[in-house]
Design a protein that fits this description.
With about 450 residues, the chain is α+β, with helices and mostly antiparallel strands. It has helices at about 5-50, 55-70, 405-420, 425-445; strands at about 90-95, 100-105, 110-115, 120-125, 135-140, 145-150, 155-160, 165-175, 180-190, 195-200, 210-215, 215-220, 225-230, 240-245, 250-255, 260-265, 270-280, 290-295, 300-305, 310-315, 325-330, 340-345, 350-355, 355-360, 370, 380-385, 390-395, 400-405. Helix 1 (about 5-50) crosses helix 2 (about 55-70) and helix 3 (about 405-420) packs antiparallel against helix 4 (about 425-445).
């Protein structure tokens, strides 16, 4: 007997219903089991990408936050903190931000380094050969410091903040064992500059502070925050300004090829008198980026846009008309970024930054001795020799790198050899020969 037309329609309807129910069941199973598994795989892959590429951290973190509704800790920074080199003494790591600038305390016990994340790290550097160094982190609320300088008595340090553009004095509190226990702000100077400050420091005699903006305004302060004098550098724009180690002079460089050297004068009773022009350092054909000093201010080094550096003899009586003269001129490797310089305390070695590299020059011959390459993934922000001239401290990505001044042993050998060429006492000859022997032994350790 054949199937009737109504029966066929009923069967089709039942089949369609069964198909819909099966689709719902399959969709439920897929979302419950397979979909969750796929989500786990995608999250795992996202985490692997985050670990492999620091640049994807923000994207993957945002994606996970949106998916789970939970915040995730920032992935560890993958910068180059483990730099190694035969000249490297050690890396002072632990800085939470990029290190901008540093300064040594006058007693030689501490070093302060300022970072762009709003912290100032105080390091105990009494023994650089120890593995671990005691540190203190000082946070600047809602701001960060572009400059830091120790007071001459090593009992306080001063910073210049970026956002508020003012000077803040921090007093040091020490523990019974002599280590630093805390540092707290005690004085905040009134805001005085409208533009970014590019120069800042405290005189070694403790008589004044100096701040200078990127324009042409320089201010001389007393230690309590009162303005003693405001002057114009007449450089069109100022690139850097520093106080000489002797505490007598303020020096400014900028768009003009001439470096301005001015003396800050006080009366015999210690009262501020005036800021007077001392002399100028001339000879460059273009603007001067940076300036550095010998420990006694007897020599000043400069570096210019014209591709040269110069070393000047500045132990002169400018009041009687004596002028500084150039002792040596050298060429450095130019890049798109302005270089930084550091002069060894005895003025025999000049360190020049070239992006992330450091070039060491013999200032007696003007020749390049050697180059330490790729200290950081970013740029070098600041360099300074230690007071003894044995090491060069370099600031950059989240670390201060301490390099042996290998070039200094080389220049010492040459200096002693030149002295042996003139008439000397037997005791002096023996001392010079011993110094040469020791320096050669040290150079041999570095493969020189």
């Amino acid at each position: 007997m054949g199937i009737t037309e109504p029966s066929q329609n009923m069967n089709a309807f039942i089949l369609a219903g069964i198909t819909v129910v099966l689709c719902v069941i399959i969709h439920f199973i897929y979302n419950t089991f397979i979909g969750n598994k796929k989500s786990e795989v995608q999250n795992h892959e996202a985490e692997n990408v985050t670990e492999a590429s620091p640049e994807s951290t923000s994207r993957s973190t945002v994606a996970e936050t949106r998916a789970t509704g939970k915040s995730k800790k920032r992935a560890p920074w993958k910068g180059k903190t483990d730099f190694s080199h035969p000249w490297l003494l050690k890396n002072l790591k632990g800085h939470p931000g990029t290190v901008l600038l540093m300064d040594f305390s006058a007693n030689g016990k501490f070093m302060a380094a300022t970072c762009d994340d709003g912290s100032v790290m105080i390091w105990d550097i009494r023994d650089l050969n120890v593995k671990e160094h005691k540190t203190l982190r000082v946070n600047i609320e809602f701001d960060h410091a572009s400059h830091v300088a120790w007071s001459p008595d090593s009992k306080a340090f001063v910073v210049h903040t970026v956002r508020e553009n003012n000077i803040v004095v921090y007093k040091i509190e020490k523990k019974k064992d002599g280590t630093i226990g805390s540092a707290n702000p005690v004085i905040t100077f009134d805001k005085a500059h409208e533009d970014d400050v590019i120069g800042f420091g405290i005189s070694s005699n403790g008589k004044f502070l100096m701040s200078c903006s990127a324009k042409t305004d320089m201010i001389i302060w007393d230690l309590k925050g009162q303005q003693l004098h405001r002057l114009d550098t007449y450089l069109m724009s100022t690139y850097t300004a520093k106080i000489s180690p002797c505490g007598r002079f303020v020096v400014a460089t900028g768009f003009s090829p001439d470096v301005k050297v001015m003396e800050v004068c006080f009366t015999r009773t210690g009262e501020f008198k005036q800021v007077s022009k001392a002399y100028e350092l001339t000879g460059h054909n273009s603007g001067v980026y940076d300036v550095a000093f010998a420990v006694d201010t007897s020599h000043i080094a400069t570096i210019s846009k014209d591709g040269t550096w110069k070393l000047y003899h500045t132990r002169i009586d400018y009041v009687r008309g004596e002028s500084p003269h150039v002792l040596e001129t050298g060429k450095y490797t130019q890049t798109a970024n302005p270089p930084k310089i550091a002069l060894s305390p005895n003025a025999e070695v000049l360190a020049v930054s070239s992006d992330a590299n450091v070039e060491f020059y013999d200032t007696y011959t003007g020749e390049l001795y050697d180059t330490v390459e790729n200290l950081y993934t970013g740029l070098i922000n600041y360099m300074c020799f230690d007071p003894a001239g044995k090491y060069l401290f370099v600031c950059g990505d989240r670390a201060v790198r301490i390099l042996h001044n290998v070039c200094g042993y080389y220049t010492t050998i040459n200096s002693c050899t030149r002295l042996l060429g003139s008439k000397q006492t037997s005791a002096t000859v023996e001392r010079l020969n011993n110094t040469i022997k020791d320096c050669r032994a040290t150079l041999a350790k570095f493969g020189k």
